[in-house]
Amino acid sequence: MKAGVARTAAPWRTAAAPPAEPDGPFVTELRGLKERTGLSLAALAARTPYSKSAWHRYLNGAQRPPRSAVEALAGLARVDPAPVLALWDAADRRQDPDEPSYDVLPPESVRPRWLPRSALALVVAVTAVTLTLVAAHRSGAPSGRPAAPSPRCRGASCQGQLPDVSACDRDAQTKSSVRDASYAVRLQYSPSCGAAWAEVQARAADARVIYVRSGQDVLSASYPGDGTAGSSSPMLAVSSPEGVEACAGVDGKVACTGLDAEPGGGR
Predict the structure, then answer these.
(1) How far apart are CA 148 and CA 135, in angstroms?
(2) How far is CA 218 from CA 4, 145, 161, 194, 226, in A?
(3) d(CA 212, CA 172)
(4) Quick one: 58 exposed, middle or buried, by C-beta within 10 A (0-12, 13-18, 19+)?
(5) pLDDT score, position 36
(6) What is the pLDDT of residues 197-244, one digit of tens each?
(7) Contact 41, 52 (CB under 8 A)
(8) How wide is the angle at C-alpha 205 spanned by C-alphas 101 and 250, nearest 5°?
(9) Rounded to the nearest 5°, which phi and psi values hold at 176?
(10) Helices (runs of H) and strands (runs of E) counted in the chain
(11) Are 207 and 224 in contact, with CB atoms under 8 Å apart?
């Protein structure tokens, strides 16, 4: 198992999103949070999964930030994210009232419409139970003890899916990890699905960000860092876990697995 270290810099680009209203209440509040942090754009980039240029677009109203970016900024400002998230939701409803909220960041230049996580889980769960019962009936296995469900995706079809919903977690292997007294971040890999994802457990009381990346391919989600249960990122379709990192925002820094040195950062 590879040893990991905590780092404070993460140079990558985020996916594009619809532009925000240039000087609306949400952008004004976002700028106020940035001022409250006392951080420069470079320092924001070093402490979050979002680049300096991305923060420039968010704060100028040229691009709508993802929900996880808003939560990350509120966390750095040490304020309750609920008021600014209410403005974020209101702006989202004005732009596209029919689009469901989802924290996964799709690849750049593509913004598919995702099913809400609860609806997706229900559809997959019903399908999995039906297929399991049919397979048990055909094999003569007792219906009270169905066989373990087969993975619901493989390779590219796993991109952006959740490991538990897709049954990819049944053969998950921990490839690298980084931990401290208050958190543990792990890189998980499923050989049967050909996919990797990040897992985190943390005691922090506020919402944080978890993400998995391979080069410029990044998927992220927000998680409640209340220590009640582990949280997973969406999955990246990869042929091997080599070169893949699992990261999470914990204790005011970004902790990543599989790194041999701590890169520099700055304001």
Answers:
(1) 11
(2) 19, 38, 13, 16, 24
(3) 15
(4) buried
(5) 92
(6) 998 887 765 657 888 888 878 888 877 666 555 688 889 899 999 989
(7) yes
(8) 85
(9) -160, 160
(10) 6, 11
(11) yes
* pLDDT at site 146: 52
**What is the Cα–Cα distance from 193 to 151, expressed in whole angstroms?**
7
Is 168 in contact with 151 (CB distance < 8 Å)?
yes
| pLDDT recorded at residue 267 | 33
**Distance between CA 99 and CA 116 in Å, rounded?**
10
DSSP designation for 144: T
| Ramachandran category for residue 160: left, alpha or beta (phi over 0 → left; psi -120 to 50 → alpha) | left
| Helix segments in the chain, DSSP class H | 25-37, 41-47, 52-60, 67-77, 82-95, 117-139
How long a stretch of residues is the chain? Answer: 267
Long-range contacts of 68-72 (CB under 8 A, 24+ apart): 68/103, 68/105, 68/209, 68/220, 68/221, 68/222, 69/14, 70/30, 71/207, 71/208, 71/209, 71/222, 72/47, 72/48, 72/208, 72/209, 72/249
Tokens of 74: 């509120």
Angle ∠(72,18,267) on CA atoms, nearest 5: 35
Cite the DSSP H helix spans in 140-175. none
> Hey, what amino acid is at 12?
W
* Residues of the chain with confidence (pLDDT) below 70: 1-23, 93-149, 204-207, 224-230, 259-267
CA distance 150 to 165: 11
